[in-house]
Amino acid sequence: MKQTLAKYFSRMRGLGKCGARHSLSWIFWSWVGSFLGILLVAFFNQLLPISATDNIFLIGSFGASAVLIYGTPHVPYAQPRNLLGGHFISALTGVVIAQYLNIPIEFQAALAVSFSIVLMHITQTIHPPGGATALIAIIGGEQVQDLGFMYTLTPILSSAFIMLIVALLVNNLRHDEERHYPKCWW
């Protein structure tokens, strides 16, 4: 038992090396992409007949998506299939649970995130911010709850698409092959 525990805890040492910091140019283009992507999503929200303070398009998971698609556009989780599919599947999962399971919110939240992970695995669309998208479908305010299945299209899919367009435009301005986006579509 002692040897098993020692082996278990030895896995947590993290003996590998962390990656090197990106160049200032890379960091600059990450900033430009994230700034424009989030700004355009916020402006899109202004086209809707809702209060400026009820900016339902700016959900937390899009901040995390910005880190992936503008900061690390070369990683698999940042690719268009993952961005769009991961958000859509997770939103749909969260809405189905919120709409059809009349159980305590803690269980709804746990089920929404867990099932969204399973479905993203099955569909090969893992996008870590998708977990937050599913969770927001459960814990979001009255405005999010009132959207029902529309939540999957607006704000989720439409905002993810806006951010994808910005990622395509900005990430390909730099001549660095590693930054070219996307690495794959499907």
Walk me through what this model shows.
With 186 residues, the chain is mainly alpha-helical. The chain has one domain (24-179). The chain contains eight helices and no strands. Helix 4 (80-100) runs antiparallel to helix 5 and helix 5 (105-123) packs antiparallel against helix 6 (129-139). The chain is flat, with a radius of gyration of 19 Å. The N and C termini lie far apart (46 Å).
Unreliable stretches? none
Q: Which structural class fits the helix and strand makeup?
A: mainly alpha
Could you estimate the helical fraction of the residues in percent?
55-70%
Output the radius of gyration. 19 Å
Number of helix segments?
A: 8
Q: What would the average pLDDT be, to the nearest integer? A: 91
Secondary structure tally: strands: 0
Topology at a glance:
Layout: H1 2-10, H2 24-46, H3 60-71, H4 80-100, H5 105-123, H6 129-139, H7 142-147, H8 150-171
Helix pairs in contact: 2-3, 2-8, 3-6, 3-8, 4-5, 4-6, 4-8, 5-6
